[in-house]
Amino acid sequence: MKKRWICLYVENEIGVLARISGLFSSKSYNIDSLTVGTTEDETISRMTISVTSDDKTFEQIKKQLNRSVEVIKVVDYTDIPIHMKELLFIKINNCSESDKLEIFRIAAVFKVQITDYDKYNVLLECLQSEKQNDDLISLFKKCFGSRLEIVRGGSVAIEAISITNR
Amino acid sequence: MEIKGSELFVKALLEENVDILFAYPGGQAIDLFDALYDQEKIEVVLPRHEQALVHAADGYARSTGKVGVCLVTSGPGATNLVTGIATANYDSVPLVCFTGQVPTNLIGNDAFQEVDIVGITRSISKYAVTVRNREDLGAIIKKAFFIARTGKPGVVVVDLPKDIQRAYGSDEYQGEINIRGYKPNTGVHLGQIKKALDVLGKAQKPVFLVGGGVNISHANKEMKQLAELTNVPVITTIMGKGAIPTDHPLYVGNIGIHGNYAANTAISQCDVLFSIGTRFNDRITGKVTEFAKNAVIIHVDIDSASISRNIMVDIPIVADAKIAIKALLEKATALNNQAWVDQITAWKKSYPLSMNYQGMTPQIIIEKINKLFKNSIVVTDVGQNQLWTTQFLELDENRQMLTSGGLGTMGYGFPAAIGAKMGNPDKDVIAICGDGGVQMNIQELATAVVYEIPLILCILNNGYLGNVRQWQEMFFNKRYSSTCLRYRKRCSKDCQNPDKCCPEYTPDFIKLAESYGAKAIRVEQVCDIEYAFMEAKANTFTPTIIEFIISPEANVLPIVPAGNSLSEMIMED
């Protein structure tokens, strides 16, 4: 089992998202994350999909996607150089003054932004890799337990130009 | 010129050379039916149920190679198509199904007779789409026919809201279409062909395993040439039967859980398995880890997603069967494998398929069909009737078999036979059904009578849902749970012994057929079989029902029990 990434170019039409997600669910493949938005050509949408699967299942997924009439192109991002970012918001409620100091310190060390706060609440905006966001969430869970509100957007990715590492 | 959507719909069907439209009207399709009223070229056929309608279109498409076309209304009209869509799509049958829909401004409002048929059929069709703008109508219909008939054929659903049907717009129906996400494969990788032939050339014990893909691409002639040129025995799946004539010396038989001994044994022992147009369904592989265990596996399929899905393949070739076989023919050479061919022939002789109990066996009935109907289409229902037919029916270029192989839909046989006869009026069309399945679409007797369709409907009546009963007998201690069709309220719940004292069968198929205006014959003895068929043949204006009273507990053998490998067959009761 391994984490995989696919970039999909699809028709920007009603029902296409349902077709793609239905294809995953009807074959019992679980989607880890899926993002979708229009591209420079407004008739085409681009999806970034992540799944955890073995090699054989992943080959099947790619072939099944390729077979769909609405899918224009499938690109496997698993092992090629790409830029990938995920947006994560973390809101910490009921903060004491010392909590706030700690949060500001974490933000400085991990280079994420505090975009909003008041006397008792702080909001962080984190734009980084999914893995970095995972790590940050587990750190905040350790420090602030049940006072967290978390929302994350799923990753978007694009092929790299000059860089060669992932 | 500006014309209504419904008029463009009719124009499109004419341009696509549709000669028969299987159609059932309703509120949201009434404009389309009105537009059809004035034209003469398309015969509009009204079956008695939408499920039978789509099976009829399926039978028409399978037997003619043309696209079958359906038209129904929204809501229940559309949902009644669902089983037939799945049946056809599973067996790669080209259909275009038009469904009426509520006007676009009401979609999503839970309007009367509104269902999201595109959503419902998404996972059982090749493509499904709602027309949302009048200006897209022509292009979408063009696209629908193109997608249905090309590549791996399948079902396309086109949902037509009522306001689109009524709206005026361009009368243009374009000649060609380019779909950026859909490029059917029309070539073959010659490097892979060469690789495959190198492996085949060195084989000691090679076999061809041929599936429905060869029949769909009409590569029967080429397949026969390839077998003869290489001297490699041919084994088929149920869907592939008829790929080469069944009386050909190199033909071994069907494999699978009801395959014959020689075929299942040859697959288990071969060293090269050259498969063409099959997806290695679980009904043919048995236990997958034991399937063709020692063989190098070559797999030709038009659908790359079918390759290495159930069985890992050593040499994949993504191509249409006919194109691949033609490429193979150019380079293939004869093998030195006569000992292997002789071995398989010996197995065939030692373990022939046969039903050797007393009385009127399905084997005797089907062998009569082999003898009496040379130029024919035989359509099966699903269950024991189907399995016996796939075992005993002889096929060649003049006799074709249609069967619901993938989905296994009871109720398919009779309406599909109606569609097949409509597409092939000069051929004898014989449906072989059980007494269970035939009742799932028995109302089509009316369709066959009113359209004067002289097909022959054979009902093999054993008073049971026989295939499940057989499993209950063999694997569930003869606990006949819900499989006896003679059962009445007064019967004991744990009856295991059908006998003469059992309640009368209902319905009386003879009276039922006669009430519809069909001819009906009941056959209870072997000596009456041929006479009944001759009577049926002579009846050229109405359908003839022949009810064969067969042994209640006849079984389909051999059988590979679930989870076993193909070499572990139960050969006798």
Quickly describe the structure:
Chain A folds into two domains: 2-79, Alpha-Beta Plaits (2-Layer Sandwich); 83-159, Alpha-Beta Plaits. Chain A has four helices and eight strands.
Compile the SSE list and pairings.
The complex is a heterodimer of chains A (166) and B (573).
Chain A lengths: L1 E10 L4 H11 L4 E8 L5 E10 L1 H13 L3 E6 L5 E11 L4 H14 L2 E5 L4 E7 L1 H15 L3 E12 L7
Antiparallel strand pairs in A: 1-3, 1-4, 2-3, 5-7, 5-8, 6-7
Chain B lengths: L1 E3 H11 L4 E4 L6 H7 L6 E3 L4 H15 L3 E5 L3 H4 L2 H9 L4 E7 L15 H5 L5 E4 L6 H13 L5 E7 H5 L1 E3 L19 H12 L4 E5 L1 H5 L3 H11 L3 E3 L14 E4 L6 H9 L2 E5 L5 H4 L10 E6 L13 E4 L2 H11 L6 H13 L11 H11 L3 E5 L3 H9 L6 E4 L10 H11 L4 E7 L10 H6 L5 E6 L4 H10 L33 H8 L2 E5 L5 H10 L5 E6 L24
Parallel strand pairs in B: 2-3, 2-4, 4-5, 5-7, 6-7, 9-10, 9-12, 10-11, 12-13, 13-14, 15-16, 15-17, 17-18, 18-20, 19-20
Antiparallel strand pairs in B: 1-8
Helix pairs in contact in B: 1-2, 1-7, 3-5, 3-18, 9-14, 11-14, 12-15, 16-17, 16-22
What does this structure look like?
- The complex is a heterodimer of chains A (166) and B (573).
- By secondary structure, chain A is of the alpha+beta class.
- Chain A has two domains: 78 residues, ACT domain (Alpha-Beta Plaits, 2-Layer Sandwich), CATH 3.30.70.260; 77 residues, ACT-like. Chain A, domain 2 (Alpha-Beta Plaits), CATH 3.30.70.1150.
- Chain A is built from four helices and eight strands, in the order βαββαββαββαβ.
- In chain A, strands 2-3-1-4 form a four-stranded antiparallel β-sheet, covered by helices on one side. In chain A, strands 6-7-5-8 form a four-stranded antiparallel β-sheet, covered by helices on one side.
- In chain A, a hairpin with a 5-residue loop joins strand 2 and strand 3.
- With 573 residues, chain B is of the alpha/beta class.
- Chain B has three domains: 169 residues, Rossmann fold (3-Layer(aba) Sandwich); 161 residues, 3-Layer(aba) Sandwich (Rossmann fold); 188 residues, 3-Layer(aba) Sandwich (Rossmann fold).
- Chain B starts with a strand and ends in a 24-residue tail after the last strand.
- The model of chain B has no long low-confidence stretch (mean pLDDT 97).
